[in-house]
Structure formats: structure tokens, C-alpha cells
Amino acid sequence: MAHGKSYTTQRSDAGLSCLSCLSCLSFLLYLLCLLTWLTACTAPPSPTDAARAPAPAEQTPDTLPRAHSPPPKDAARPATAAAPPGDTAPPRNTPWTSSWSGAGLGGLFGKLGSAAAGAGSAIDRASSPVRTNGGAAATQVTVYYATDRKYLPERNNYGWQPNRTPPYLSYGSVQVSIPEKRAPGELPLPPWYDILSGDDAQKYVLIKGSTRLSRADFLATVKARLRAAPERHAAFVYIHGYSNSFDDAARRTAQMAVDLDIGALPVFYSWPSKGTLAGYEFDENAAEWTQTHLQAFLADFAEHAFATDIYIIAHSMGNRPMTVALANLLEKRPDLLPQFKQVVLAAPDINADIFREQIAPRFASLKLPATLYASANDKAIRASYNFADWDRIGDIRGPVVGIPGMELVDASAVIMNFMGHDYFASNRVLLTDIATLIKTGQRAKNRGGLKGIPSQAPQYWAFP
Hints:
about 35% helix; two-stranded antiparallel ribbon; about 20% strand; about 475 residues; alpha/beta; twelve-stranded mixed sheet
């Protein structure tokens, strides 16, 4: 035939085409079934969904119920003295946790519940960390929080929107598991593609659950923890920076609690950062808006939490509300000043001229023991300069000028990751210096590993 194919050939091709279509359809159905099965059987639950139920939106923080299901009435604890997680089993026998081994209260560390037990059960009971298949254990850390983010019942979490309803602040605790087989400063997170082992607590830092508390229950719980400390009643408060979610702040606080090992109760304050790189302008407004709420929280915490030693660690844009809030508070309430032992300003994203002219003099007049870490290799701070066209105090470039009344430490020489912005918590050298500063109260001239520049009469300090 001059045109087309023979009938036999056409029939054969048609049969192959049908078989091919059937094969493709079968393969697609197989993939669909496989994905459905994997989602149902292996995908990890939402970090917060497994541990708490949404509270009614119209309730204020002082009337909020416990987020997880309440115990039977005959076993209920008094509402104003909610016992913290980990109150039934002895803590780990390690230097870090031994300081939290009060009678009946246990330690900050608890056993990470097995996957079969679920995240909710890990909240209400704690014991020594478990080891599975001879591998390294994961340690559960309880961190406490205050936030003026808006609570989202449908997500059982706090979003980036501000809570514009008085009294603005919400409180609670978050349980975070930290792999023991991890170098200090590492914060390994599950990659988006790791469906099968994304909930592996031996590999990743995971949020295992959280509990919402009223203000009264929050203060009672924290007070009970601090009273149980046999040595000193210490707490550190972390204020996160730009482009951080609520969960980001919880994970970082838990990681620092383990790596700093300073025997202080870990607390974080989370302001409504949008949590995106594109949200810088929104975050600037949010950082300004949160300042009065942070000031109220610091006053409340210092007055009612039974903390005799309070350490502040603020990062990046979080230094903006922190510096103003703390200065305002202590100028108004000088009686609280002795409780604030050290203030760490890590990579502060603050206008350099405003800081030198308006903030540093206030800290100096209060005689606040403050240490500022800056770096010339911080790409995020450099980007902030490009955005605002104004120098940032966390970007240390020559000629370096000291800050009267405050110790300035140049961290440019330490090894950093690509962005070089989280060096305060990701580098072992920085962690060691901050831990020494907090544990001993020593100023830079007495801490090993720092050199004065110039050496005869140092204006600032640097890592060699």
C-alpha cells in the first residue's frame, strides 16, 4: 500500500496502545494508593495537633483551660498550681539536669515517648531518655513561653498575626526533643522530602507537643520549677529575631538550653514575626508593636516567677524591643535591677547611630552587665543595611569604635554557616563564651579565648 499501514500492523499497534494505557493507569493507581498509605501510616503528626486541643478563641489567657484533655475530677490538680511535665519520675543524673531534681518535680529533661505512645503521652510523664536499637537517645526539654502572637485554633498553633485583643499575651510550655548524637550548635531539622523518617527523634530536633496555660498557671509552674532548684533560682529568656516562627523560637531555645548547660530554666518570648525572608518590613513594625508587651512580661516574670538570676539573650531584630523594654522597665523599677545578671545582644539588627546615642547610654547609666556580639561576616545584617541604607550595630566594620558601658565582642574570626547570622547559638566557640559569661559572671578580660584590641587599653574584644 502506498499510504498508511497494513490492517495487521494497525491492529497490533492498537493493542499495544491499549496495553500501554492500561499499564499507565495501573501505575498511577498504584502510586495513588502508595501515597495514601504512606500519608496515613508513616507521615508524622503535626507537632502541635497531637498534644493539644484548641481553646475557645474568646477566652482570655487567665481563664484558658489546659489544652490537653483534663484528667478525671478525682485526679485533677488545683488550677492555680498546675504541675509541670515530668513531675513523677527522677531526672537524668547529669550535671545539667541535677540542678532541677527537686522533690516530686523531676528535671527539665524527660523520656521521649515511643512513636506508638504518641506525642500527647510524652507531655504528661517524663523519665530517663530512651535508647532504641543501641542508638543514641533523644532528650526531651520543656521550654516555657510568652507570646503576643494570635492563637489559631484550626492549626493549634500561633501564627504570624499579632494578637490585638487585650491582655495580648498568651502563655504555655513546649516539649522539644533534642538528639544526643549531635554536635553542640547543630539544629538538625527534618527535610521536607523525608517522609519515612522525618519524625526520627534520634536524627532531628522535633517539637513533640505543647500546652497552653493561663498567666496564673504559667507563673505557678515556673515558680515551682525554680523553687525546686537546689543551687540557684536561675532562668534565661530568649527573644528571637526576624523571620522566625513560633516553632523556630521553641526549637532554638531548647537547643541552647542543652548546649549552654547553664542550669537555668529555659523561657522564650515570641513576638509576631512573619517568619519569611520577604516579611522584613512587617517584622520591623511588629518588633516596635511588641515592645510594651515584652516590658510587661519581663516585669511580671521578675516580680512573680521566683527567679533571682535572670539572663537575657536577644537575637537580631529581637534586640530592638528588648533593649527599649528592659531600659524602660529598670528605670521605672530599679528594685528589679539586681535580678538581671547578664544581657547578651547577639547580632543586633539595630540602627547603629540610634543604638550609640539613645540605647547604650541608658544601659551604661543602669550599669547593666551587657555584652554585644557582632561580625563582619553576617550576610543577614549586611542585607539589613542594604534594605534601610543605614549601618547596623551588629555589623562590625573598621574602624571599630568601642561602646562605653558595654562590652563589644568581634566574632568575625569564628567559623560560620552560609548566612553567618546565627553564630551565637550554632558555633561551639560562641556557645562556650556565652556559657562562661553566664556561669561565672566574668567580664571579657578574664574569659579565656578573647583578646583585647588594642591590647594595652582594649576598646573591644575579639576571638583570635
